[in-house]
Every structure is written in structure tokens, then in C-alpha cells.
Design a protein that fits this description.
Order of helices and strands: HHHHHHHHHHHHHHHHHHH
CATH superfamily: MFS general substrate transporter like domains
Helix content: over 70%
Largest sheet: none
Number of helices: 19
Shape: globular
Number of domains: 1
């Protein structure tokens, strides 16, 4: 079969497009890598605190800087994808991640802070770009499945950033060299992705107009109340993983449960490993049922029960590794609002819808990271953390999940089994 010209491809709705699917796979690899680099600091907390003389609040704030630029540049990523397509936008994001990765291991706190900011800015293009390419490569009936599969790559990276990075920096390379070598590998991925990603036919003549024109689609997305419900619901369901597990999971298992470091790393890695299976399976179930909300709400309830069990039941009640895996599996439902926000907004703002979604989701993570560090420090009174401290701290996460469940009931059902109405368009974006 002869494939279309990769330089300029006209996308036909309802069809599979092999070149876009190939580009989606590369962007999913980008998402895998950025998630691994996002979670890797969680297994080198002693090294980072010793190198930069940071307390819990200082370290949590430094690592949380990632989410500020991740959230802000999600808007840039979505707008640039809608205006310029993935050919230029995605490789630019990968290159930014490469520079930030190298800078994080450079040596000083200032360079680490700048590197973390660049990592967040570049990584913002990963998921937004992957969902954009999936929406162009797959028919709409497979969108939730493709979004779930994309998140599977990310959480597999998040898991690898814990169980694979820990033995690397404790016996193969120094933690500084880990960041240097990773940055070089990411730079190579940027070049490969630029070569492989097709140029869309309707992007050939785009390039004029003001900078504000590029952000015009957000007038539609951010004028839709459903967009905010999607963002805050998913954002609250993300927090137990992005903050609870990937930053404080290993310290909690070590200092709270009294587990030695290597075992704590492997057990913390089970949460993102659960996402690896939960995100695509729950997305598929939602597609198969033709309903989004029942899967989302039931999974969020499961998260609430499992989180409470992990924190408050005797440690012998849940077999090791199983509780974290099941919690991560249920957490995969946080990806369902990513499908909903695309379906409650017009087709011509797909990239901006995902960008706005990431802005809302990871703004919560950016705000929550320093608050989490401050709360732990406040609860412990500056003393060594113990299980009682983590249990009191965990009430914040449980409350967040409960609020997400309430918000989910107000989401519009957009599954294929629900009669469709045309999305409300507030204003028409000016496209140069």
C-alpha cells in the first residue's frame, strides 16, 4: 500500500492515518521519557538534599517548579499545535526538555531550578502533542482508548523513573551524569521526531497574523464551564500520584512504614505501573460502554477506598505491592476527562482543549507541591517524619478525591451511547 506524501497530508475524519499514528508513537515515547525524568528525583532525595542543603519544603518547592511551567506552557503547546501543527511544535518541546535535563545535573541550586523550569516547559508538549496526533491518526470512536494508551506510556515512564533510575544512580553512574546522559538521549529523540512527523496540508499557508491570534481558540475552550469541570476533576485525581507518590511516596514508605530504600522504590513504582494498565483499560471500557461518567465515578470511589486502606489499615491487611498497583489502576480514570473536554468543545480547537486541560490539571499540582511540603513540615514540627504525620497529611489527598467525585457528577456525558448535541461555540477564533 502506498502511503500519502509525508510532507503535506490532508486528514480525513473517521479513518486511520498510519503516518500520524507513527508520529503519535514517537510522541508517546517523548511522554514516557518526560515522565521518567519527572519522577526520577523521588529516588534521589537524600542526594539532592545533601548536595543543595534543602529541607522538605525547599526540596518540594524546587521539584514543584516543574509544574508551574508545565501548566503555563500547556497553553503555548495547545495553541502552537492548532496553528502550526505537530511538525514543528513537538520537536521544539523535546529540545527544551533536553536542555533542562542537562542543566538540572549541572551542579548549583540556581541551575537546577532553571533546569526544572525548562523541563516543565518542554514536557508540556508531550501529552498535548500525543493526544493531538492521536486525534488525527485514529477515528473518533477510539479516542478515549488512544488517550488511555498515551497515558500508559507516561506512567510506564513514571514507574521506570523510580525502579530503573534508583539502581542506576546507586551503582552505575552519579546522579549528575544520569541527567547529562539523559539530556543527550532526549536531544536525539527531538531530531528523529522532527524527521518522522508529517506536515498537515492545512498548515502549509499558516504563519501570518499576530501572536494573540494563535491563542484565539482558548476563547472558545475557556468560555465553556465544562472545560473547568474537566480540568479540576482530573487535576484532583492526579495529585495523589504527582505529589503523593512521585515526590513523597518513597520517603513515606521508608520513614512511615520502616521499609528499606530499594523495596520502598519498587513499591512506590507500583502506583504508576497501575496507571500503565488502568489508563488504557478504563479508557477502552468507557469507549465500549459509550459512557464516560460511570467509569470515572466508580474508579474515583475505588481510589478513595484504596487510599484510605493504604494509609490507615494495618500494613498486613493489604499484600505488599498490590495496594499501590490497584490504586494506580483506578487512578487511570483521571484520563477520561481528557476525552470529555475534546468532546464538549469544537473540533477546530483540539490542541487548545488539551492545552487548557493541562493548564488546569497541573496548576493544581504546581500549587499543591509546596503546600504538601509545608504541611508535612508543619505537622511534624520539624522533627523526623513518622507514620502518624503521613496519616494526618493524607487527609488532604482523601478530601481532594472526594471533591473530584462531586465534580464528576456535573460533567456532561459525551460517550457514543448518548445522543449528541452540537457543542456551544462562544465566539469564533480568528485564524490567520
Amino acid at each position: 500500500m502506498k502511503l500519502p506524501d509525508s510532507k503535506n497530508i490532508k486528514v480525513q475524519a473517521g479513518e486511520f492515518h498510519p503516518l500520524f499514528i507513527s508520529a503519535w508513537l514517537l510522541c508517546a515515547l517523548f511522554y514516557f521519557v518526560q515522565y521518567a525524568l519527572r519522577s526520577a528525583p523521588g529516588v534521589m532525595v537524600p542526594e539532592l538534599t545533601a548536595a543543595w542543603n534543602l529541607n522538605a519544603l525547599g526540596l518540594s518547592s524546587l521539584l514543584g517548579m516543574y509544574f508551574f511551567t508545565y501548566a503555563a506552557f500547556s497553553l503555548v503547546a495547545g495553541a502552537s499545535l492548532d496553528r502550526y501543527g505537530a511538525k514543528w511544535s513537538v520537536p521544539a518541546g523535546i529540545a527544551c526538555l533536553a536542555v533542562g535535563t542537562i542543566m538540572f545535573g549541572w551542579g548549583t541550586v540556581f541551575e537546577a531550578e532553571l533546569g526544572r523550569l525548562l523541563q516543565g516547559a518542554g514536557s508540556a508538549f508531550a501529552f498535548v502533542g500525543a493526544v493531538y496526533l492521536a486525534a488525527h491518526g485514529f477515528p473518533a470512536r477510539y479516542l478515549a482508548t488512544a488517550v488511555g494508551a498515551t497515558q500508559m506510556f507516561g506512567m510506564l515512564g513514571g514507574s521506570a523513573g523510580q525502579f530503573a533510575v534508583s539502581p542506576l544512580i546507586h551503582g552505575v553512574v552519579t546522579w549528575q551524569n544520569f541527567w547529562l546522559y539523559s539530556g543527550i538521549a532526549v536531544a536525539i529523540l527531538a531530531v528523529v521526531t522532527f524527521i518522522a512527523t508529517p506536515q498537515e496540508e492545512n498548515r502549509k499557508q499558516v504563519g501570518t497574523g499576530t501572536l494573540m491570534d494563535m491563542f484565539a481558540p482558548y476563547k472558545i475552550v475557556l468560555s465553556n464551564p465544562q472545560s473547568y469541570l474537566c480540568g479540576f476533576c482530573a487535576g484532583l485525581l492526579f495529585l495523589p500520584t504527582t505529589i503523593g507518590d512521585m515526590i513523597w511516596g518513597v520517603p513515606m514508605l521508608q520513614q512511615g512504614f520502616g521499609i528499606e530504600h530499594a523495596t520502598a522504590v519498587n513499591r512506590a513504582a507500583m502506583v504508576p505501573m497501575g496507571w500503565v494498565f488502568g489508563a488504557p483499560i478504563l479508557g477502552y471500557v468507557a469507549d465500549r460502554m459509550g459512557q464516560r461518567k460511570p467509569v470515572l465515578i466508580a474508579s474515583a470511589f475505588a481510589m478513595l477506598i484504596l487510599a484510605a486502606a493504604i494509609l490507615y489499615l494495618p500494613t498486613t491487611m493489604l499484600p505488599p505491592y498490590i495496594g499501590g498497583f490497584l490504586f494506580g489502576f483506578a487512578s487511570g480514570a483521571a484520563m477520561i476527562p481528557y476525552a470529555i473536554i475534546k468532546e464538549v468543545n469544537p473540533d477546530n480547537v483540539k490542541g487548545s482543549a488539551t492545552g487548557a486541560m493541562n493548564l488546569l490539571v497541573f496548576s493544581l499540582s504546581a500549587i499543591a507541591a509546596p503546600i504538601a511540603g509545608w504541611a508535612l513540615q508543619k505537622i511534624s514540627g520539624g522533627a523526623a517524619l513518622d507514620m502518624a504525620d503521613f496519616r494526618e497529611w493524607g487527609l488532604l489527598g482523601l478530601a481532594g478525591i472526594a471533591v473530584a467525585i462531586v465534580l464528576a457528577f456535573f460533567l456532561e456525558e459525551t460517550g457514543s451511547a448518548t445522543p449528541k448535541t452540537a457543542p456551544i461555540i462562544v465566539g469564533k477564533p480568528k485564524i490567520a
